[in-house]
Design brief:
mainly alpha; Cytochrome Bc1 Complex, Chain D, domain 2; 21 helices
């Protein structure tokens, strides 16, 4: 009998390998317990936050914030100039009794010749501050308590925080990644064992004179397929039909830009303006009432509000867009129009904003915004989608001919209060035998309505 070559035990090798793997990971995980570090860090941060939140005595900052947002925010900011000066720490720069008199009636102080009052009046273009005689001493103290709060500085994330979080996930046992690595290693070793066992058994069979079964060589499947004419013809027909379907679909999408969402030079959030602040679409796109096009709002329209709004509120920020990002976009607007927020005046140095057009109809297609918006009473969202929910504007509808025709066939004409349509409705309703007429029944499908 042929001598079989000696091989070391595969099971022993597997056991030693797994033992070494577990021992190595145990050494890696043998670190200090991060719970104590987390407690110490939380204690230190808690002490820091307590210092930040400390409120000056003599007023309720929470009540003062509400009064500030109601009465003062239109002309003042806590930080930075607006129509009036910044108010953070004003109780440290001015006498409290003088502030009470100034807030109640600034005009009296100016008329009396108070030097500080006259200086502020002249510095801010001689715009008098409106009087607030309804405010009590407690109300003014509350406002001063709010403006006296120090500016919150965001704490930077410490380098050890990420490591502590990673270690914390492994408390109470071996982490999931290590377990998956062990399982993958064991499966790999099992495959090696099966390969070695199979090769050893074949050698035993060869040494013992046992004939191993030999697979018969079969005809290749592609050759059998070619010899079957029915399958060849059927496959060719199916491929031709599928190819024609995809080619037709491709050509039908030429010029269709549904979902197009370009990045604009200045980030404009329709969600904030039309959604959160409920600004009417036609306030900015005013030409949609009287013109064929909706028009691009001039930057002067933006400055109607942003002369006084130089930064967004803290609650406006999201996980994707921070407050610093939005404030930076407002700064781009200031650079474009040449507005200096410090002096509250125009510098005369402007830069053009190259907006990227989103909705674009072919030149041979005619569409009139005023006819749809004013006469037809169609809401902007009908064609442009939920604009009030869009952070970045995109093309919602396909704007194809079929899409327009479907709308004309399903939309009834608004005839109430329109003498011209009332006369047409009276005649055509008898012709079609209906109570309400669609746009299609009033000629909305005629070629010349939309094509020159």
């Amino acid at each position: 009998m042929k001598k079989v070559k000696y091989r070391p035990s595969v099971a022993r090798m597997l056991f030693l390998s797994v033992s070494f793997f577990l021992s190595f990971n145990a050494l890696v995980l043998a670190q200090d317990n991060p719970e104590d570090q987390a407690v110490v860090q939380e204690t230190v941060q808690g002490a820091q936050e307590s210092n930040v939140e400390a409120e000056p005595s003599g007023g309720d900052a929470a009540a003062g914030k509400e009064l500030f947002n109601t009465l003062c925010a239109a002309c003042h900011k806590l930080d930075g100039n607006s129509i009036g000066p910044p108010l953070r720490g004003v109780n440290e720069r001015r006498d409290v009794d003088w502030l009470h008199s100034w807030i109640r009636n600034s005009s009296e102080l100016i008329a009396a010749g108070d030097e500080e009052a006259v200086a502020i009046y002249n510095e801010y273009n001689q715009v008098a501050m409106p009087p607030f005689p309804q405010l009590s001493d407690a109300d003014i103290d509350n406002i001063l308590a709010y403006t006296g709060q120090p500016k919150a500085v965001p704490q930077e994330k410490q380098p050890g925080d990420a490591a502590a979080g990673t270690q914390g996930g492994g408390q109470g046992g071996i982490s999931t990644d290590i377990l998956l690595g062990i399982l993958a290693f064991v499966l790999l070793m099992l495959l090696v064992i099966l390969f070695l066992v199979n090769r050893t058994l074949r050698r035993f069979a060869t040494a013992s004179g046992v004939e191993l079964p030999v697979r018969e060589k079969r005809k290749p499947i592609w050759k059998s397929f070619v010899e079957n004419q029915f399958l060849v013809i059927t496959t060719a027909i199916v491929l031709m039909l599928v190819g024609a379907y995809f080619v037709y679909g491709y050509f039908m999408q030429v010029g269709v830009d549904q979902g197009y969402q370009p990045i604009q030079p200045i980030h404009f959030s329709h969600k904030i303006h039309a959604g959160d602040n409920q600004i009417d679409c036609k306030f900015c796109h005013s030409s949609a009432r009287v013109s064929k096009t909706s028009g691009i709002p001039s930057l002067n329209v933006c400055m109607n509000c942003h002369k006084s709004i130089g930064e967004v509120a803290e609650g406006t920020a999201t996980d994707e867009y921070s407050k610093e990002f939005y404030d930076g976009e407002i700064a781009k607007l200031y650079n474009a129009v040449g507005w200096d927020p410090e002096t509250q005046s125009y510098t005369g140095e402007t830069e053009p904003v190259k907006w990227v057009r989103i909705h674009n109809l072919p030149d041979f297609a005619y569409f009139n915004h005023s006819q749809h918006v004013e006469v037809g009473g169609i809401a902007c969202q009908t064609c442009h989608g939920p604009v009030e929910e869009m952070e970045i504007m995109y093309q919602n509808a396909p704007l194809t001919m079929g899409w327009c025709i479907t709308c004309h066939r399903e939309t009834n004409v608004r005839t109430a209060g329109n003498e011209y349509y009332e006369k047409v409705h009276e005649e055509l309703s008898k012709k079609y035998g209906v109570e309400e007429l669609t746009v299609a029944q009033m000629g909305g499908l005629e070629c010349a309505k939309c094509h020159y």
